[in-house]
Amino acid sequence: MIHLPISKANERIFDIDPSQAPTEDLRDEIFQLEKEGEWIVQRVPEPYMEVKTKYGRIKKIPVEKTWHHKSCGQCGHIPGYSTSIFWLNRQFGLDYYDPTDQTSCTAWNYYASATSNPEAQAAVALRNFASAYEQGYFPLIHCGTSFGHYKEVRHALVHQPELRRKVRDIMKRLGKPFVIPEEIVHYSEWVLAMRHRIAERQVIDMSNITATVHPACHYHKLIEEDAIYDPEIYGAQRTAIVSATLKALGITVGDYSSWFDCCGFGFRHILVSRDFSRSFAVQRKIEVMKEEVNPDIVVTHDTGCVTTLDQSQFAGRAHNKKVGLPVMSDSQIAALAMGAHPYKVLQLHWHNTDNKPFLEKLGIDHEKMWAEFQAAVDKIKSGEMEYLTWDEADK
Amino acid sequence: MSKNIGYPLDLKMNHYADVSYDEKERLFEEVKADERYHHMLYGCYECGICVASCPSAKFYDFSPRVIAQALAREDVDLIYTLMEDSIWDCSQCFSCDRCPRGNSPGQLITIMREVAVRNGLASAKKALEGYGRIIYKIMSTGSQVSPDMLQPNAFPDWGVHVNEIAENLELWRKALPPETLHTTETGWTVSDKTIIELYLIWHMTGVMDLIEGIDEGLFMILVDVMEERLEDAGYDITFD
Prior knowledge:
The complex is a heterodimer.
Chain A: H1 26-35, E1 40-42, E2 48-52, E3 58-62, E4 66-69, H2 72-77, H3 79-91, E5 96-97, H4 107-113, H5 118-135, E6 138-141, H6 144-159, H7 161-174, E7 179-181, H8 187-193, H9 195-200, E8 210-214, H10 217-220, H11 243-248, E9 252-254, H12 269-272, H13 274-292, E10 297-300, H14 303-311, H15 313-318, E11 327-329, H16 330-337, H17 356-361, H18 366-382, H19 390-393
Helix pairs in contact in A: 3-16, 5-6, 5-7
Chain B: H1 21-32, H2 49-53, H3 55-59, H4 64-72, H5 76-83, H6 105-118, H7 122-127, H8 132-141, H9 161-167, H10 169-174, H11 192-204, H12 207-214, H13 216-232
Helix pairs in contact in B: 1-5, 1-6, 4-6, 8-13, 12-13
């Protein structure tokens, strides 16, 4: 008889040993290519914070000197998402740059319609990286798809010399440096790394709140080894992103069985086949969350996820589905915890599903806050104020 | 290379005209020639993990496993059928990257879609019907969606709050503290120089040729816009 050691599931310890990682550490290749004169590697500026990724490797997250690679979906349709990221930076007095020399990554279109090619996609990415480098700031990527796509682009550039040559040639013809960042960093990683500092400045008690988290597919499924994992969060068996942030703010994070499912965004579906997006978001995500956790709020960290999970619930009401969960980004929740205005900063009027019960549970007088926002809008309308300033947003 | 080996699932929906075996083989060779292809396909355990993870498989007659298997078996008839039908159902979430063999059916579909677009397949034209305005927006402005796209007729299923946004759009955009967000036609302010560089990228990478093959009307509109701005910036470039 063979005697094998047996341990119960809850007694197992999953050691994370970077030396046992099944995938290469791409950064080694990136620096090697720099030594060979292939490109410039933009270093993460000091001071930076260290987090651990899936296989225990250290990832550097810049504190400041960040070049904010904005998201077209966030800025276009849920602008309080990006505004909250900037607001957090301003509250900590950090040096950041909000560029106009930035295009979308164009990956939403690529994944939706395939009306592009790897060379064009890589050139768009490298043009943006070059812009950040020229400004002396380090890219902080707001969109989950941009983040995942840029990691794919970086991987392709490392392993495909011909693609590298073509894109380098394009950059040369544009008169731009051929630069790759040392790390591709998503804003939610910055929020996570800053979570204890955010919690120190917390003015809204959130200990009575239960949230469910939707981790964005393009954050943790594309180049999965680069996503943040933490033994304290689900035993490092799934990404710690967002969950770790919420726990630091005192929020209870509820688990639900369809956490791995996508939100239903589908890229082309959300624009031209929304029956799929609506059905998936409601039936596989929102209803499951309601039945298994019944949270106060859904928190996620990507453009498409906030949009799909939030907007899809309206039609679900007509079919008597179990809907009615407000949806926000981690940046909005973090800003709210630090006392940001729900309409001037979080811009919750751009969201669809009713979030007033959530605000009421936090003791926030949303009627008073809305009146304050309306008063500011009236000033803009009358010409008394050109636009809502940061100072005005904090009044 | 094998001919049709009689795949058990008959996915042929007969929505599209058949083409010769040689043409199907040519298309498949174009898929295989993509440098990414061989890093995305390693065989198949038939474990079904990709299907279980796949959102599209829950709602459509779609299977990432069939994609991987058809390509691995080089079943060019089935591959053609999939390119004329299933590939546009994929959500591109890459949940199927969980594959224990290391396959990426989602990434394989990205390549198959590119080939479908490049060759002007009927499925690509059909899938992109109604999508032209999005391509126009991203290619001409560098921003995929914009605030002024939030119109009730475009998003009737998002409810009355879309009306409210549309009615208050100009004011609400000014009520955003970041100055770059006071725009309505783009997500943020994009400098002229940036747009010109983007157009030059489209020109240098042949993306406009793709557009011409899939939607000539859209191509002509884009050419008008781009050539004029490029000329104003001192570039003598044509997309023909």
